[in-house]
Batch of 3 targets.
Target 1
Amino acid sequence: MKHIKLLTIIATCLLLTSIFSVIPVFSAQPPIDLSTYYVGTIGQPARLDPVRAYDTASAELIQNVYQPLIWFGDKHPLDLTSGEDHILTQLEHSKLTYPSGFVPVIATELPIITNTTDTNQIWNFTINTDAEFQKWTSPDNGGVLNDMPKRKVNTDDVVYSFQYQMVYDSPNSPVWMWETPAFNIMTFDAIPGGFVEATVAAMIKEWCHKDVDHPDTNVIFEFDYPFPLSAMAQIFSQTWGSILNKEFYIAHGAWDYSFAAGWSDTYRQMPDGNRTPIDKIYGGVSQYASDTPRVGNDVPDMCGTGPYKYEYGAWDQINKVWRLDYDSTYWGGWGAAGQGDGSNYIKTIIVKGIDTWPTRKMLFLDGEFDTAYVPRANMYDMLVSKYQPLAGLTLVTNISSLINEEVFFTFNVTEDSAYQSFVGYPTHIGAAQPYFFNNTAMRYAFAYALNYSQIIDQGWFGEAVQQASWWVDGLVPQSSKNETLTANMRNEDIAKIKYYLSQAIVDGQNISEVGFETTAIYNTGNDQRQIEVQSIANAFALAGFNYKVNVVGLDWPVFLDQMYSYAMPAYCIGWQVDYADPSDWASPYQQSTGSFLYFQGPPWPGGDAHQAAIDAKIAAAAYEVNATLRDEMYQDLQYQYWLDLPSIPVVQPLGRRFARDWVKGWYYNDLFPGLYFYDLYKSAPGGDVTSIDMDVSSTVAPLTTYPKVFISMGEMKIPAGGGASATMTFNVTVKRNDAAGIVATIISLVRDNLTALTDFRHRVNSSATGYSMIGVPWPNGGWVYLEALSDVDNLAYRLVGAQSPVDPSQIIVASNGGSSVSVTLTWYENGVVSTLPANATWSIGALVGIPSEAGALLIDTNTLNNNVTMDPSTYNCTAVTATEEIPHKSTTYMKYLLLAGDIDGDGVVKILDAIDLSSSFGKSFGQPGYVKAADIDGNGTVNVLDAIDLSSNFGKKAYA
């Protein structure tokens, strides 16, 4: 009845204190989980469909689930050293040139490329029909959808994957990278005469189709306006080149693979232009029951051919956690030579969005995260000096990524936006001004409000380069850069701000006379962008009291939705290269259908005719075959961009990468949107395992005082050069002088001069009855939780010892009964077998439980081999007087034995522990309120299983 009563108490507490939510299991490190990769980041994905996703957070998830026809094959894994900086060189970047930088994936070989005319180009791919789609399990929605078993990829899947992108034809998506080289357009709305369903259907079918001579194995793409070969290969290799499961998409309500009349009304830009049926229910054609309870109408789901699979519901948008698990039968196989010993590949990926740096920092330094987003403003928290990371971390600097940061304007803010611009401040004159930033003088004033040198120094600590236009260094060819603009960089200039405000006439009012109020927005957690908008606000405050710029931070998915809805007057966002060619940069920033400019207007700066001329030049430059003329065209476009200033270029940052030193296999590719986990693994420096033998014999003599004693048995020394082995074998004999049995013996080895032991594991080989050895210390502060089963009172003891950089680590050997046991201990550090560290000292002791009021422990030892010796001077345990006697309820004794469920650590499992558990109930690792001690089973969430564990020991004490 005791257990039932306790659960009733806990349930009552929960009703008062807890809010329940279902989230993916987010177990915590340490000990180092070699099979799971934990990432601490900011923000979350926005879309899961490769057809629609167009941001790096979404693309990182996608590239681990889906695969393209060809992919990047040039890898240069870095050999990184703990506590040292690695300066990345250009030679260590993955090659992006075709064909040397690419390998086939869902193709059996690189494509056959032929030119039928000077411009027309055909790409013919032989499809890898051995590749398999993952098994997909439908959610519980009334049995409307059946599970989909694994199946082979076929040519219909490939044709569907590419034709569907053009059927969807969303200007919010990356489809322009197919439409532009195919038809010289960025959306079918731009074709002469407008969108005509039959015409567009014929264009799509002519562009991508099965090879009529080899329909079961080959797919052909016909481009009328192809980019350079390397650029085209890069486009095929990105997430928008992903091969989709046709059946999976059709079941979710996506295009039905038919061009029957009316197809565009049903499927084009549906369900809402911002999401596809993979991201949001499309009730009219989806097999999902439209009334099935969900988070809003979102249906985030995935089914690819990649090494990792997405289980329905594994993206918790509320708690900002997403998870992927490996496909154990992945067609590409596991255990590649590059993955350590071929067995320690990543099986589970858990990415947690934590916007607050102090929390993310703590979890990263505690080893809970393998890598984390480190804001540049907080990088010194990770450093000993500017270019030396803390011990246990690795650092890569000088990452010259193809990324830039810019400030954008919306030229016609939507009426229902919560962020509007007004003439006049502090008193507004008239209604909101949606066209506020269509005024060129106002944009110029904003350009001179940015303190670029301060942004680089404070936001990037000097590791960024100011840009004069959309150009970023590293694009190919470098000769396309307009070098003359470098001498005309803008910087903060209050006088010029005032001048351009005097030229700004909005709604008939001179802004310099009446003032203004507007809003600049950044995504939360991005310190550099916050510094950028704050720099603007500060400059206008200095220019005059009646100039007001409000600074607002939004979560990333909300930020994107606001951008796509034309709701933000001014905002900061970056562009990461799609493919390393200037056409990928001129188009987003200057073309009316470009990825950025499209969501800024119309109206266009300079008017429609001016914009049409720019559009034409961008289109012509992309396909120009004369290299010299092509360079000149892009240089002219950069100059025109500098004059029109549709957005403000800020910087091209130089990246830094921090990770724990057990992360291996990382390399840098300019086009990766994030981590590719299949090539990563977790390990640590290790050595050859040899044998170290140690014999310890112990005999119990009569003792009349206490039934439990702790014996200090001596010390084991490892020389300065370190041990040649990671394994030690003990022959331990524990018995009573009077031949009576011993209830429980715990042999404890304590590493006295431990500074930072991240993952200390052990293996035991023993044939002794009743012998057990389990448990792993936790790193760097907190507690060491070590489970040990004992026959004493049939209790499950939890052995606890504090570990910090100044406290020792322990190995616990529990011998329940029996007279002798042979124990082989294998040392693991950071998750792999490791040689014994130099200059380490291990103290050997024993905690002995004796059923009668008599007992003592006598020690005899032999010398160790392999240069590891016992120090005889510490052996004074030949008589009772040498024992350390521990009475009942002693705090010293409590350090060694603590019951599971004793959350507050006072030696008794009681109602206060139940209350502590209830206050943390439902919380998971990384959430405020999560208490690790209350997570009794260590699965990362405090739940009813922990309450049951606590209930099983309720009322029990850790001492007899």
Target 2
Amino acid sequence: MKTLNIKRITALAAGAALLGLGLAFAGPISFQGVPIINSAGQPVVQIVVGSTAQPSDGVAAGNIAAAIGNLAYTTVPVTASVNATQAKSVLKVSVPSASYTISNPQVWLNISSSHAISGAYQFQALIGSVLNRGVLEGQPSSTKTLQSASSNYAYPNKGAGTYNLNTFPMSSPYTDAMNSQVPLSTEPVATNNGGGITFTSFTTGNGDNIMRITNSELPVLLNNAGQYKESEYLWLTGFPVFNQSKTPGSLMLESADGAYQAYFSTPIPEYTTSNTVNKATISLLGENWTILSYNTVNVGSVTSTTASAGGKLSLAASLTPLETVYVGHNITSGPFTVELTDLGQPNSTGASPAALNIYYNGKLTNVTQIWPGYTSKFNVTGHNLYVNVNNTFAGLYAYQKWAKIQLYSDVVNLTSGQTFNKTNDPNWKVILEWTNSTTGTKPNALSSIIIYGTQAQAMNLQQGQSFEFITDPAAYKFTYVGPTLGAGSFDPVTFTTSTVTSDSEYYANYGGKNTTVNEESYIATTGSFTTTNTMLYVNDTAINETAQLLTVKSSIPNAFSGSFGKTSTLVYDLTPYQLAENSQINTLSVNSVVADVNVVITDPYNMINSNTPETIYVDGMPFKFTTNTYSTENSRFFQNVTSLYPSNPIPGLNVYVYTQSTANVMNSVLMATLTSQSPVIFYSTNNKPYNSTTTAVGSSAVTYSQPNQVNTNWVLTPDTPSGVPGTAYQYFNYTIPEYPVPLSTNYQDILSFGIVNSTKGIGANPLFILNYSASTTATHGTANNVTYTSSTAGYNGVSATSTTLPVEQGFITERGSQVVGITPSELSFNLAKSVDEMGFAVATATTATNTVTGYQLCPSASLPGIGIGQSLAACGIQNATIAKVTANVTVASNANYTITGIGNIQATPSVPSAAEPVLLKNLPTSPLVVLDSNANPSSDLILIGSGYVNTLSKALQAAQNITITPTSAPIVQAYGGNRILIAGYYANQTTAAANNFIEQLYAQASA
């Protein structure tokens, strides 16, 4: 049976599977043309031993039969399977970009609406405002408030009237006891955020930068509860703005902070009517506490009942209420059990200490005694227990002995004006407020406990971030959830500069052809012009030469309206010219006078020089200029000028064409002028382009309309730059105003950008660029050339100054519009279709917020792309992340590509071995070894031994004239195509011949 190396088979099978080939491992075996084994693996010969042979011939025949049986094998179909997962992990395909194409690319977005947080109080505030008492759910316009320099506080106009704010029924903790701790805006507004909001002082209005949350908004807060009518309040502070000084820039709540207040409508007296310390039970930060001791405010009698700040309190967090425990009984809370075992001997006042056993999880840990009026602390493996013995009674008998005991989990000491918890809450301080029932007495009743934050200067909440009101115990948290507008709430608007060549656009066409006198007919008739027949001739078809354009596109149909009608695309010609042609004033003979032509230009902005020359074409004739000068062309006569244009249109460039009656003598006869005009808007009527009939494109030229907003006027304003060629100066300014307060025009913010000449000269294409950056000291110089002006604060006679700052890609305005991209030839904005708001949530510390966290920058040189799962907020799409990206990739049939890792593929063959034994058929009836007397003469035969012992060998020798003698060499030879003779004179020679035959047979099989 033939065997092959299984590793070799596996490798071949793997390669064949990749190449689509099949494998076969079988074939027939013959010897010198005599078939030995057929393709089915069956022997087709008989081995013949002579009847009179010696045993050695039988041994030789047996060895040959064994060799043939060993070589009998058949074809074994072998297949190999490759695990796809394993192949993908090791195969690497590299296809150069020139060899493939990508079609149908799609980006799939995860888009969500504003986040709902179950169990929380949610509200919204306008971007660029404050958190204050004007914030009401569903009425965000109340948050757009500003403080003027005169400390008068202005609230906004809500629709048709003034929004009336209800004052708090109490003073805020910030105005009442800690004026020095008012959270003020600390960010430098002029360079960082677009809110335009700042506070430098706190007014007496109790509602500046502060907002109150009560039980009506968050039901877990107490409202007039218990014996002392306790109510809880959360006070929030902060400035919702876009801050681009952070990395990356994002919407955030600047100077975020807050305060917690427990207020007692019925103040808690220091002593009870029995003149004992009032162990009052109160709630604080969601937990029950018992007052252990008081130190009231250190003042004498006061003239009013107004609250005074100061003093100290010792509070214990209650595990159990005050209980009467008899000797032999116990009180239990959680793993702790306290057993009263006895009462000790009374002291001089009759008070007896309580003898106690402390158990933890049923195991005795402490044996102690505590006197009445004292509290002891026990620590068992880090678990604290406070035991307070309030009173004891010894009694006459054991069953009469008892002690009043209360268990606490924690004891804290609060000192007014000091830190609440130096270890866990170093940024929170305490104010204790006391009052008195009548004037002229000492304040000795607790009216309020205030815990306020002092970290506003450093606390800026980004989307998804929270801050907790105290971390130990953690009770409440305040979260900035994110903006409210979804991805479909914006109008993508682009501004693009371009240069168009002949026949693409039309210049301005002012005036019309003189129809009173036909100039050509007059010249033909009279042969000259006269001073009495002066005519104004203007070309009546628009000039179709090179122009510099600004194209504005909106996604909203008919977003723009004006004298041109309505459209979603505006086309501004930034370089229109007015062509006017005058007749010759002097009397000239058409045929007898040769007139020279003088061309004079004015370039007020100094854009023309030897490096950036300008060519003026007069009826196709070129005049080259490098300065403000004139050029003369001799021997050229013009009856009139019908074509006059510059090679490069430049704002402010004026061209004058004169004629001369004598060569090189200027006689100031003006033939034609080409005068630079202010930009115009092109529109189409009956498929023919026209310029706007409005000569200006200022405040009333373009109205921008979209749903849910008051219409605004977009303005393109020409500037008057000055300088030298090669320097960028602003030639035009474009402003986009918005109204960031719903349905109110009292507030307006503005996005604006400059249109600046390229430093490459007047031949640059396009001439104007949009991402210009210049020194802040230069006229109109702003970083990235996009500026933002915050909404004005003026209201009801209160004046304030808006803030103007340079902004970058990703900036978000007060309305919620976004600066998406800034490139040399295109600016792109996402203009909010409605006023965006910043959503906030107040909840318990354990409430899940489930918000999206963080922003990612848009593609840039430093960050070339946005990954799967990353937010698109900085790219102008709110509440969305990249879910997946799909595309069809097609590789050309003749593409050059490489595949690596093939050698690492592991294939599994279909059989464990490629060798398969063959059972020799019918050996009993058709034996492989026979005697010469039983051989089949028609079969292929292997004859063992010479004719001396084998009759068939004798017949073969006679037929082939073969003589075998003692000196003859052993014979291993085929004869006649069907006989193989293996013989020698001696027995050992026949055995050697048989061995030689076997070796040759094996050698052929191996080949």
Target 3
Amino acid sequence: MANLGFPFDPDAVARPCSYADLPDLPAIQRLKSCRQWVVWRYEDRGKAKPTKVPYQPGTGFNASVSTPHHWGTYDQAVARAERGRFDGIGFVLSADDDLTGIDLDHCRDPNTGDLEPLAQRVADLAETYCEVTPSETGLRLIVEGKIASALKRDPVGVEMYGKGRYLTITGWHLAGTPTEIAPAPKTLEALREAVAAFDAAHAAKAAEEVPAIASSGPVATPLPIAEAGGSPFFRNVNSAALASLPSWVPAVFGAAARFHPGTGAFRVSSKSLGRNLEEDLSIAPNGIRDWGVGDMGDARQGARTPIDLVMEYGFEKEPRGAAVWLCQQMGKSPEAFGWEEGDRGGAEIAATLLARKVVEAEDGTLADAETGEVIETASSPSDDPLADDYAFGDISRPDGLIAEMTEWILATSRRPNRPLAMTAAIAVMCGICSRHMMGPTNSATHLYLVNLGATSVGKDRPFKAMDQILTAAGFGSIYQSAKFKSDTAIELALKSSITSVAGVDEIGSAIFAKMGGRRATTHESSISAVLRELWSVLPGDTWQTSSRAGERSEKLQSPAMTIMGASTLNEFYKSLTGASVDNGFLNRFTVIMAAPASEEQDEQLDRRIVPASITQKLAAILPRSGNIEALNALLGPSHPAEVLRIEWANPAVGERHLEFSRRITRWRDEDDNASPFLGRTAEMAVRLATVHAVGRAGRTALVTDRDYRWGASVALASARFMIEDASLRMSETDYQSNLKFVLAFLKQAGRAKRMEITRKVDGRWDPGTTDKILRSLAEGGQIGLVKGDSTKEGGRKPDIYVYLKEKRART
């Protein structure tokens, strides 16, 4: 039995790390030499046990393991941990190092130090450095050499990562193991054998159950996206359903399905599913994964399809019925997806697949372990323009200068809201880049940005922060708090500041309602035309103002207006008309959803002091930094002699953009409802990618694949949101608006009591109007009404349940 060289503390849940007093061992010295350190603390994230959340040593803000500038030196991590409320320090595994981290969980008795057999076998091999984890119930090994792909099996207690993770470092060396980091081939082999043995046992058990599954009739059997032979009906339905999640997910899970507009995904907690598991069910456009069972030997490692979910949690319990139900929810016939009489049911196909041993590649693709045949991918690039090819991860955590400004705004906010802060940072970057930089496709670099969210989410601080940052950098004159009442007001603003960053709070009522109102004057209704023209002006172009009585038109050299607006959802869409969609006005806006309101907190940094690192980097982006000519580049009457074009980092990134554009075009051609919102999605992606690249690398930037993924992800999130939301919220009349308000609520809730709708209305109209609206929708076949059972409601007058047609009410 291994003898640990420190006294035990059975009463301690986790012994605090001695940050500055790690043992002077070769392994620790090797890690100290790398600038890959973070700090961490335990936080309650609603799971069974606290989560170890990483933070940046330099700023104390949240850290990302995929963002190198978030990491610091060992000394920085120690200093931050000692002066902050942190529970430990950690080392990030990077793709650029030659290290692999291994965790053996729940393998050690914290009272005696006794190890489980597998952990004892690894300790006896003694190939590389090993230490005790903070919980004192596990071991961590650091191995020289990078594994090809991550491996995680919770039932076995084994995790192996080569990148994309950080390791909590305690320095509690396991006596009897080496003090240096070394290759560990026997250790890796032993752990892989243990995992393989578990997988084989579980697969054998699943194989025994296959005959029963195949012959027992309608059961909730997992169904693959593709079937071997036969028509592509099931594959097509699954692919279409992934691209249209809001049309069916709320109907299956009701209010338990939490929508995340930034990613277009839904998440259903394990608690809501009535199970005692740690992980949730993720339903995203690029695939569905039940993380609760993914690491527990599930035959498909948690991968699911829309048809699977309908059978397991919905109203249909056999594949054909589930697929047909999904077709109805998407408003199309089964024949539209390739249904032919005689298609195989699906349970047989599922049974065949369940008998296979499935492996998962790093990109999430599932394949047969023996043949290498792809069993399931998140989505097919040829079928889905929102495929995972463009996934960035958390789009609210970009890189470079945009990230730095975002973190500073958050740290100086009493109600920090990450998407709002990021949008302000993007607007600042656009203002600095827009008049003298263009993207790889000769695209402009100014944007119209809109944050949508509830009241009291912290919208004020980002507006003030934009002004502060630009002023501190010496360019305060380009920021204006704008409420453009007419096209003339916009032109006058550009004449006074030809580069403009306009902050518009309540943009719906401040601008859009004026230009779209029935009583709008000519100057108010022309706001749309002026803004549409200005969005398309490129660096180096001229733009001509209107000619009015007593005033000649004027040519402006490269006017560049960036807008950052904020509004509530209802106010934003209420202020827009169908004409705003048809004429391409709305698709020029990048919509970013705010996070829910957070609790008020103390500011972490002095909001009066903008960090010099931010202001200096902003100034360095200009063609002539440090003198009045730099300001003239933004504001001067003549455009700079040379416009800097930011190029693709390599041809592959350019090809990625071309393919993205082609897919968007196909999507527009095939979906008339989506088409009006997609007209500028590809152009928007390039603009976002360009300012992201410049924020990351300054004037020498090249647009990398990561830059483009971020830009495309933000643009797609905006398009998804408008496609799914605008059709229900936008209307031409107040009565249509009321109808669509009710439909939007039912779409989110799945079904609701009449009184719940009345409360949701909250004074918009009287209760009698609610009944009129419900009657109208019911007569039109859009909703159904079901009377509750009075015997179950204590003899009271039964409630009336309302649900969208083709969605069954659960009374």
